[in-house]
Amino acid sequence: MRTFIAIEISEEIRDNLSANQERLKKTDAKVRWVKPGRIHLTLKFLGEIDDTQCELVTEALKEIVESAPPFRLEIQGMGGFPNMRRPSVIWAGVRNGNDDVTALAERVEDALHGLDFPKEKRPFAPHLTIGRVKSKRGIEPLSSQIEDDSEVSFGEFQISEIVLFKSDLSPAGPTYSALGRFLLH
Fold first, then answer.
1. C-alpha dihedral (87, 89, 90, 91), degrees to nearest 10
2. Is 185 in the active site?
3. What is the pTM of this model?
4. Cα gap 105→34, rounded to integer Å
């Protein structure tokens, strides 16, 4: 099964991001926008794992959360990877709580590396993917609008759990289902 570990975002932030996506759609840029219900903050993408690996990951996550306290996270600003001249991904950023979520992601990374999951080559950059650019058409007005939104706050919420998700791919897009929820202590 295809899996990843993530933080779910609050309904308020989903609604705020959705409203912003609607505004950005008016630029007519060729972007496949992530449906609001599918927006999350990925801590670690695992890829295909079997039932035995899933059990090991579950045990590792139980240990991680035992000494990881809840914290607040603010979603603020927007940008693109690799940059706004030629973006392939449109994202909303993390401001307050950045150190906490980065530390949590590093703990997940270290624990799963011990289970033979390869470490990420790039440093963790907390963000919410809200769209994937399909062509360069309309990029200038989109980039301009995103730069105008570089400091907008989409809200703040309490992080109290991490989730192990299964991702089923289909032509209509991925469907995510929780395999396990792990409360921070």
1. -130
2. no
3. 0.94
4. 22
d(CA 116, CA 95): 31
Asked whether residue 184 carries a pLDDT value surpassing 90, the answer given is yes
pLDDT at position 61: 98
CB 64 within 8 A of CB 151: no
* Active-site annotation holds for 113: no
Q: What gap in Å lies between CA 58 and CA 74, rounded to an integer?
A: 27
- Alpha carbon separation from 177 to 2, 79, 142, 171 (Å, rounded): 11, 28, 32, 17
Catalytic annotation, pick one of 14, 40, 44, 107: 40
Instruction: Kindly name the residue from 127, 128, 154, 157 that is annotated as catalytic.
Output: 127
